[in-house]
Amino acid sequence: MQIIRTIAELREHLANFKRPAFVPTMGNLHDGHLALVRQAKPLGDVVVVSIFVNRLQFLPHEDFDTYPRTWEADCQALEAAGCDVVFAPGEKELYPEPQGFTIQPPSESANILEGHFRPGFFGGVCTVVMKLFACVGPRVALFGQKDYQQLMVIRRMVRQFALPIEVIGGQTLRASDGLALSSRNNYLSPSQRKEAVQLSKALRAMAEAVRAGATDLPSLEHHAMDALAQRGWQPDYLTVRCRSNLQSPVADQVTALAKNEGLVVLGAAKLGSTRLIDNLEI
Ligand code: PAF
Question: How far is the centre of ligand 1, averaged over its atoms, from the C-alpha of 255 (Å)?
Answer without folding.
Answer: 34
